[in-house]
């Protein structure tokens, strides 16, 4: 009876998390979608309506731009900073790293929105996608550095010393020796940072003024009928397209690395 109860609990828990996904898979193809998951009255009219929206598909491109730009900056700067913190012995290095991680966890983007907005205003980055990328990058860097430092600590220094014997510069060592060894860590940080940016609503909503520059998370907020009710046909169809890039990226990275967190060193 204990085992049966355990399996029943697992099935109920699985169904609880599977129902929203089932709704997301069925509602876009339903002629009259509702908030309940059911067999759809099959139609593709919802996709035609979505493609006719002047901002829907453009917002997906804006989300790709923000996510890709932030992901590249986070991976590059986090890799350089993590390598420096791993190899250079500085007084109070660990305390500094933990302080940055703690402050980034406590003072989130929501709590720091007023000073961030003032900073973006002074730098003329309001209604600028570059400003959003820089703000998001700054918020993600402390955690990314903390995670990557563990990968850097696990790489043998003998490889770097061998490269130094042959006259490699520090940047060449990072590019040709360290980066290939910590590729799973870099892939993890890339997926994590892109996922964080992809679902971010508040910062683009406050810093961007032009609808044509808004990402998908902000544009989805505008999908209402003339009576003020959520347009489930548009929301469900857009949500399906909105979720595909992150899912595909996760599957691609997972199939390439399998999220094996032991770097590129053979064991």
UniProtKB/TrEMBL annotation:
InterPro entries: BP-dep_ABC_trans_perm, MetI-like, MetI-like_sf. Gene3D superfamilies: MetI-like (1.10.3720.10). The keyword Transmembrane helix applies. Its main location: membrane. The keyword Acyltransferase does not apply. Pfam families: BPD_transp_1 (PF00528). It is a multi-pass membrane protein. Residues 60-253 form the ABC transmembrane type-1 domain. The chain crosses the membrane at residues 60-83, 95-117, 129-148, 185-207, 232-253. GO terms for biological process: transmembrane transport. Keywords: Cell membrane, Membrane, Transmembrane, Transmembrane helix, Transport. It is found in: Cell membrane. One of its GO terms (cellular component) is plasma membrane. Belongs to the binding-protein-dependent transport system permease family. PANTHER family: INNER MEMBRANE ABC TRANSPORTER PERMEASE PROTEIN YCJP, MALTOSE TRANSPORT SYSTEM PERMEASE-RELATED. This is Carbohydrate ABC transporter permease. It comes from Streptomyces hoynatensis. The lineage of its organism: Bacteria, Bacillati, Actinomycetota, Actinomycetes, Kitasatosporales.
